[in-house]
Amino acid sequence: MKKLECIIFNVEHGFCAFIKSPNDYGMMIDCGGRDSFSPIKWVRQHYNYGYGNIQYHEGRRIAEMIITHLHVDHFSDIGSFINKEDKPKILLRDKKTLKFIDEKINEEKEESTQQKILKQFKKFQSIYSLDVENQVDWGFDFYKHCQISYKDAESISKERDKIINNRSFMIGIKYAGNKILIPGDIETEGWEKAFNSSIMRDILEGTNFFVTSHHGRKSGCNSNMLRYTGIPYIYIISARARDDGTFYSFYSNPENSAGYLVYGDNEPSRTISTKKRNQSIKIVIDELGRSAIVPIPTPDNLTKNQQKLTQKRTKKIVSEWY
Question: Is the pTM of this model over 0.90?
Answer without folding.
Answer: yes
